[in-house]
Specification:
Chain B: InterPro entries: DUF2975 (IPR021354). The structure holds two protein chains of two kinds. Chain A has five helices and two strands, in the order βαααααβ. Chain A is mostly helical. In chain A, strands 1-2 form a two-stranded antiparallel ribbon. The chains are: A mainly alpha, B mainly alpha.
């Protein structure tokens, strides 16, 4: 898939830990880890909304399209 | 509390009995055939008879009128040769041939039941909607389909062999090429269901990886 997740970059920039973000977004640590490592198949708008709200960023900061 | 349904326990038991029963009976049959001297074995051949003379068979309707009796299609008959029949001369004799075909049938049966056993195991582990189960269902369907075709061809071939070994009176041994339509329908249904299962397991994987 050509969609890449750059969550770790944004988290590093905002100095947010995995546990804190999982708590704030309201998803499990395991699911956040799946998202961060790029193993997720899809992301719900509600999850994306909560992550953007927690990290004060835009969806484009987290998701990118890289043509293979 | 996630309690397992009673039907699952029954299913597990049935499949286990089938699995172990098959292994034990296969080993016992193999050892028995291998261990018994060829001249003490009773040699039999299953053939398919057609054009059976039914003149000796009679039936009467409730009103006393005679009813015609006919055999519908080839009838399964067993030709039992006397123990003294000299069948064990060649190096690759009938005993080895029986063991070979028995082994082949045993391997196919074991493979078939193994698929069922593995599917039941995934249900027991609360994770049946996986791609492996779709593959297993497909294997079961293909095995049934292969069995149906082999049965049709073997029926014709065995009748031919039987015809070359005996001279029948009152019936013919030239069997017809007939495939079991019911089995083929079941096999196709299982293969179609396996495709549905494959699609379902893919959707389930996507669902579980949607965050």
């Amino acid at each position: 898939m050509a969609i890449r997740i750059k969550l770790s970059n944004v988290m590093e920039r905002k100095d947010a830990s995995l546990t804190e973000l999982a708590d704030e977004v309201g998803i499990t640590l395991a699911n956040l880890s799946i998202l961060k490592t790029g193993k997720a198949k899809a992301i719900r708008f509600t999850t994306l909304d909560a992550i953007c709200r927690a990290l004060e960023c835009q969806p484009g900061d987290i998701l990118t399209f890289e043509d293979e | 509390m996630n309690r397992k349904p009673f039907s699952l326990s029954v299913l597990k038991l049935l499949v286990s009995v089938w699995w172990w029963g098959l292994i034990v009976s296969g080993i016992v049959a193999g050892l028995w055939i291998a261990g018994t001297p060829a001249d003490q074995l009773e040699w039999g051949l299953v053939g398919y008879a057609s054009d059976i003379d039914t003149s000796a068979l009679q039936a009467e309707g409730r009103d006393g009128q005679s009813v015609n009796v006919q055999f519908d299609g080839p009838a399964r008959i067993k030709l039992l040769f006397p123990n003294s029949t000299n069948v064990g001369n060649s190096h690759f004799g009938p005993k080895a041939m029986i063991l070979f075909f028995l082994g082949l049938a045993f391997a196919a049966c074991i493979y078939f039941v193994k698929q069922l056993r593995d599917i039941v195991r995934t249900i027991d582990q609360n994770d049946p909607f996986v791609a492996e189960n779709a593959r297993r269902m497909r294997t079961i369907g293909v095995l049934i389909l292969v069995f149906a075709f082999v049965k049709g061809i073997a029926q014709l071939a065995i009748s031919g062999i039987a015809d070359s070994m005996v001279t029948p009176t009152g019936f013919n041994l030239n069997g017809r090429l007939e495939f079991p339509v019911g089995l083929i329908a079941v096999a196709l249904a299982v293969i179609v269901l396996s495709e549905v299962f494959r699609h379902g397991s893919r959707m389930r994987e996507e669902q579980s990886l949607t965050i």
